[in-house]
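FIELD: query
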Amino acid sequence: MLSKFLNTKTLIILLLILGGIYLVTKLTEKEERTFTTELVAIDTSKVTKIVVIPKLGSGEKVTLEKTGTEWGLESAGKTYMADLPTIKNILAELKRMRTVRVAAIDESKWDEQQVTDSTATRIQLYDGKDILADLYLGKFSYTQAQNPQNPGGQPQTVMYTHIRPVDENTVYVVEGFIKMTVQSKVDNYRTKTLAAVEPNDITKVSFNYPGQDNFTVSLENNKWMIDGQPADSNKTSLYLRKYTRLSSSAFLSEEDRMRPTPSHMITIEGNNILPIELKAFPADTVNRFGIKTNMVPDAIYNGGKNKLFEKIFVGRDEFTPKEN
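FIELD: result
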């Protein structure tokens, strides 16, 4: 009888121990699942301000702020038009990034992992005056991994960033492109689009080259004409496609040497669009021209970079039919 009681007691104790182990396991799994979910678990549609503080000595603080539906950019006391695709990419990467592992739980490795005040890029997200996230973006690394769905294919590049929330000691390693998306230079956040218009909406392009050959390409009775003479429709369409999104990420400043008056100007007109004016100001032998557009009044684009000047300011031959 006593032996049976002891066996029953022992069984109960074992069941309690096993129950405890099961509970701890489930709690651990829950923590692990929490650990592997979004490090930034916020509704990015509520973000009204993004502040980027580059690591020490690498640039000025950048503030991107939303007013209504428009984003503005301020840095070092100057304001610019902000690049909406860049802002969308930052918010998408923050939402998409996933924690892979914990890299440190105290400050002993912060310098090595580049998550201190002086070694990290800091990013802050706000909803009005409320701060939603405040992160140090640190060391960047990548590995080559084979895609399990395509074992015979090219290895995929997987990118990682060490991240530390400002109010935590823990450093996390996250997978994603966030370190590449959040850059330190203000130019990365300025609008890169000189013109964006559907080619089918364009009906007239006027080329004004002082002292040179001025001409106009226009759509008349559904046919492209150059100064009243038939133009090559294929060559004209090819040129107009450039304005679907004419862009450049290379900027000049007012301090760069440029003449005060433009040497070249074109005006693009059409249906359902505001006239677009592009002007080229002669500069030095390296930059060649500074290019301004009325679509982005605060910007001067580098005309020498990627042959931007040549793409825009073409000659009459760009539209004339080939002689048989």
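FIELD: remark
Helices lie at 2-36, 84-96, 110-113, 178-181, 233-240, 308-312.
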